[in-house]
Structure prediction request, 795 residues.
Amino acid sequence: MPLTPFQEQIKQALHEKHRLQIIGNQSKVALNHDHQALDMSGYAGITSYDPAELVVTVKAGTKISDLKQELAEHNQMLAFDTPDYGDSTIGGNYACGLSGPSQPFFGALRDFVLGIKMVDGQGQQLTFGGQMIKNVAGYDVARLLVGSKGLFGLVTEISLKVLPLMEEKTYSIEMGQADAIVKMNEMAGTALPISGCAYYQGKLYYRLIGVHPPQSAMPEDNHIWQKMNPFRPEISGKQKLWRVSTDSMHPPIHNTLLVDQIGARRWVVSENKPDVSHVDLWSLQEKTRRPSFDSHTKITDIKRGLKSVFDPYEIFY
Amino acid sequence: MNVVQELLHRLPRDQVIVDDEQKAPFECDGLSAYREKPLAVVLPADIEQVKQALAICRKHNTPVITRGSGTGLSGGSLPLKNGVVLGLTKMNRILEIDPLARTAVVEPGVRNITISQEAAPHNLYYAPDPSSQVACSIGGNVAENSGGVHCLKYGLTVHNVLAIKIITIDGEELVLDYRDDGVDLLALLNGSEGLLGVIVEIKVKLLPKPDASQLIMAAFEKVSDCANAVTNILKSGIIPAGLEMMDKFSIKAAEAFAHVGYPLEAAALLLCEVDGNQYQVEADTETVSRVLKENGAYMLKLSRNDEERIALWQGRKNAFPAVGRLSPDYYCMDGTIPRNQLAHVLDEIERMSKHYELKVANVFHAGDGNLHPLILYDAQIPGELKKTELFGAEILKLCINVGGTITGEHGVGVEKLDSMCQQFSAPEIEIFHKIKRVFDPENLLNPGKAVPTLHRCAELGHMHVHNGQLPFADLERF
Ligand SMILES: Cc1cc2nc3c(=O)[nH]c(=O)nc-3n(C[C@H](O)[C@H](O)[C@H](O)COP(=O)(O)OP(=O)(O)OC[C@H]3O[C@@H](n4cnc5c(N)ncnc54)[C@H](O)[C@@H]3O)c2cc1C
Ligand SMILES: Cc1cc2nc3c(=O)[nH]c(=O)nc-3n(C[C@H](O)[C@H](O)[C@H](O)COP(=O)(O)OP(=O)(O)OC[C@H]3O[C@@H](n4cnc5c(N)ncnc54)[C@H](O)[C@@H]3O)c2cc1C
Prediction:
């Protein structure tokens, strides 16, 4: 089998002992000048898509907006609701493990990953998982690498489960944050077809899909879900932006800008790290790698061990 | 002191089984064609005892085979002669149910159905429902990433587990949480078949019970019409809560067993359940009925109430034992295929059935492409088991050839080691072995299961190995 250009670049890097930095569209990371880029942004397009199978296979450099558009033409969607800024790639999204407001209802990005093709740090082409909704042969490497941020290997192709595009309506109720957190959790425990539930600037917002009973709440524009995104620079401003993943019933945290995902995700704008577990720093200005706060040295050891399984010569920075 | 003596010495006497007769119930799982008696069976009651047992086994370099309820169908908890079985059924407490946050924290030995029963007063339930749910343990479900009738809409085990606590072979207690940053270790442990760690606590997601559920049953004269109907239901934008198909043989067997009124003359039967709020269910029922008629269903039946709905499911849910009554033995296969290959695959299975002179009943999770052909055989007839296994392996090969996989939900265990050699290349299998070594360098946790040695693949002739250089040549062959 002939080597792909990516494999050649990796073998070359191995030979010359220099490091590679995988980039999509650099919306999360900027290229470090000491490193050579392994640029995925040109490796784009849908490899296979049969709407009736509810599965799409896509090259990693494909822009999310392009993928969404193609799916919409067949009345389907990426149900993990990833925020759409028009230029990030599906590979970058996979490597960051990012999902939007629908996560508690439909699942996170990793829940829709069925299989990947990748090239490891020795230039080997590997396939894990496939295009099946159910597949338990071998360890689930396709899901393991969600969130690996380009440190383990180059993901070249991803198969994702897709869902029918659903009609949605957004409603709001005015209330205080603490009450809203309880109310959200109560609503999520009913049979209402919810696909988003957030608290933002004094209002509890919820989004319903499909046919549902009449609501007494205020109807809202569906675009509110993009507007309340804390990533917009004018919102987070100069302070640091923290993403807190927590229990959905966790009480209000100081300086919270947005409570999303029924309370399980809080966006906090502050100079200091909030004093809760599972906090990540999100800095648009710096575009540096996000630090990770592992609680346990053994877990860090395992992650290091896994890194060396896929990238024994530390080619990927 | 040897390992058994030390286990007897350090753990409560009634929790260590060494007597041959008492060991008998542990000598196999649901794949009873394979049997072996272990050195001992340990039944820990809490995490401390799990750690103790692991420490003793590690000290004596003794393999540990973790076992839940032993309902596995691929020999995953088959003992080793020189190993210890760690049975977790005593760890069966529900530790916490938080109705507002919709989560439950449970010990691994809790039976799947118990979680839903305990959550029911809060109008919540645990979605993944393998047919073995009255018996199988939630720990086993995580280790196998089990699925059920509802997984097209509500996902597999991996989609419904929020965190787990594991004990590693070196005794470390780790919590793996879906909120952790970086690579997804929680996803890796799901479906790891007891090879990476002992799962001792699980936090699951609970879902609100739907307000309404409607079952639509449809009969077809042609299998291909039924397959098309499945495709078109999904194309219409509806994700049913359950979408199950049975062939003529299974319909007959199930009806003779459960007497629920299945149409005996049909070539294929489809059971489609839609759920949600009342409004949605009415709309979806209308759409599904229309699609079914358009695709050649000659008979439609809508459940009039919950009792009737549950009754109609009974036939399908009991299809395995029903078929079991028609034959001394049966072998349950588990492959997944793209749905658009269904008609072709069923034709091929029919052809093989004639070739091997063995009857097959087809039960099919049509919504997600998971196929369960049941091969009927008689173990008393010399050579028939071997023939059955060959037939089974050929079905799995067919699944791979049409773009599918060798196991949708039952796992690899010892049963599908050879088929793994067909689905994966040598470098991929090598990666699996290396992952295992990160967690368990001495290869003490369930050794020989789930991932074949490259030796084995090479001997089968399915894998090309350069210059006879086998990585992991030192590893034991199972
Ligand atoms: C304006 C703006 C708003 C945003 N809002 C949100 C938000 O609301 N919520 C949210 O969760 N996220 C948000 N993001 C983050 C954004 O979604 C991610 O930055 C994006 O998914 C990364 O895609 P990318 O192609 O730009 O990747 P890059 O930034 O180029 O790379 C991101 C990481 O992925 C790795 N990577 C990229 N491609 C591959 C590959 N093929 N194989 C292996 N590793 C790879 C890189 O090495 C790097 O570590 C926002 C970003 C921007 C710029
Ligand atoms: C009639 C019948 C119907 C079935 N239907 C389905 C179905 O619809 N869907 C489906 O997916 N499966 C089905 N199965 C298969 C089986 O029930 C599942 O695989 C189940 O998850 C096994 O659970 P268990 O507790 O019995 O595990 P066991 O059989 O005891 O063990 C299975 C594997 O998990 C490992 N393991 C068990 N507990 C732990 C733990 N706590 N930590 C680490 N490893 C552990 C074992 O080492 C072994 O490898 C069916 C089985 C039967 C007999």
